[in-house]
């Protein structure tokens, strides 16, 4: 397990099977958090600069999309993510089973990774950065560190949106324009 220093006051790592599940769950949550933080910051930057007319990230689900209605997008997402998550779960339960011939429309070689939870191959690792175990260990460590940081950042984004009712870039601009009077202390003291 990456960055295991033996600190486990709740005893979550005592059962090896549960620990294996927690490691995979942390990896998935870290990847979603990294994508979420990047997406929120990018769209908020486009919105604030006026490059695109976009809603604030927490109102994005309420807008009408040009390509399809919300129900259609939900069903497509459910099917695609459901398929991907089912494949991931099957690989978790039986490591290596999803690399067998015919398990993924003939693309098994293009997605072949070193271990469950870390798909690779030319499709997901086009630069070949994690082809050997040493490089893979380094990249796994970087991924989990950045993922943990992104999970904390997502918590901060959730809290700031709830308190200020604005996006992160808007809050940054407000703070930079008046750094002595637009801080978390003033914001929280005004909300009580």
From TrEMBL:
Q: Where in the cell is it found?
A: Plastid, Chloroplast thylakoid membrane
**Ligand binding (chlorophyll b 3):** 160
Q: Which domain of life is it from?
A: Eukaryota
GO molecular-function terms, A-Z: chlorophyll binding
- The UniProt record gives the binding positions of chlorophyll a as 26, 29, 142-143, 146, 148, 175
What is one process in the GO biological process aspect for this record?
Answer: photosynthesis, light harvesting
**Which keywords appear in this protein's UniProt record, sorted alphabetically?**
Chlorophyll, Chloroplast, Chromophore, Membrane, Photosynthesis, Photosystem I, Photosystem II, Plastid, Thylakoid, Transmembrane, Transmembrane helix
Positions bound to chlorophyll b 1: 31, 111
Gene3D superfamilies assigned: Chlorophyll a/b binding protein domain
What is a single cellular component term in the Gene Ontology annotation?
Answer: photosystem I
Described purpose of this protein according to its UniProt entry = The light-harvesting complex (LHC) functions as a light receptor, it captures and delivers excitation energy to photosystems with which it is closely associated.
Tell me which family the UniProt entry assigns to this protein. Belongs to the light-harvesting chlorophyll a/b-binding (LHC) protein family.
Q: Please give the name of this protein.
A: Chlorophyll a-b binding protein, chloroplastic
